[in-house]
Amino acid sequence: MLKYLLILAISVLNANSAFAGWVDYPALYDVTGVAPDDVLNVREGQSASTPIINTLAPNQRNVEIVAVSNDERWGLVSFPEGSGWVSMRYMARQPGQDPQFLPKPLGCGGTEPFWGLSINNQTAQFDMMGESPRTYTPIWEDIPSGMQAVSYAVKMQGNGEDITAIISRNQCSDGMSDSVYGFRIDVILSGQSGNRYYTGCCSLN
């Protein structure tokens, strides 16, 4: 199963070919250069003539840019129940984001059943609807040998279980909204009760 997940994660090379510089995304940005009494418009498309569907505050921080347009002038952002495009002229990338390492903290989850996995530097927490939250310790992570950081493998242990997660830089939908996520995740839980396999999406926290 793990070999299959690695092959699946590497396939994102083709899936992301429509965007420029995609290996550096998703990434966190701050809004900049917008007047204090103004807002940054989130538009339906990659043009100032397309409808405004949301706005960002002039001092808004930690905005996740999921992808950029081919000309790198527009960035794709998500918000509850939707997604849209902002002008990259007014976005400043936060320092210290190296795509060679899995970005943390990272919040992941899926539906049917509803589950969540939060990964931090020292711990990870898995939540399943109807079950008590469980805490794990990440013990190993890596990227595909000899390749760009298009995907990451993470292994976690705790509660008599192992969690193996493959997280790939690939646009992802939760299947319930129009929000676009920048990471896909495949998770295998292995323990005394057997193996469980889940898929979902992740976003930068």
Per DSSP, what share of the residues sits in E-state strands of 2 or more residues?
Answer: over 45%
SS content category: mainly beta
Quaternary state of this entry equals single chain
Count of DSSP strands: 15
Runs with pLDDT <50, length 5+? 2-20
**C-alpha geometry:** elongated
Count the domains: 2
Strand order of the largest sheet: 8-9-10-11-12-13-14-15
The average pLDDT score comes to 88
State the helix count: 2
Into which percent range does the helicity of residues fall?
under 10%
Distance between the termini: 28 Å
Largest sheet composition: 8 strands, antiparallel, barrel
Q: How large, in whole angstroms, is the Cα Rg?
A: 18 Å
Q: H/E series, N to C?
A: HHEEEEEEEEEEEEEEE
Written account of the structure:
The structure is a single chain. The chain starts with a helix and ends with a strand. The strands form three sheets. An eight-stranded antiparallel barrel has the order 8-9-10-11-12-13-14-15. The protein has a five-stranded antiparallel β-sheet with strand order 6-5-4-1-7, with no helix packed on it. The chain folds into two domains: 2-11 and 98-204; 18-93, Roll (SH3 type barrels). The chain is mostly beta strands and 205 residues long. The chain is built from two helices and 15 strands. It has helices at residues 2-10, 12-15; strands spanning 27-31, 40-43, 52-56, 63-68, 74-79, 82-87, 91-93, 106-110, 115-119, 124-128, 134-142, 151-158, 161-172, 181-191, 194-204.
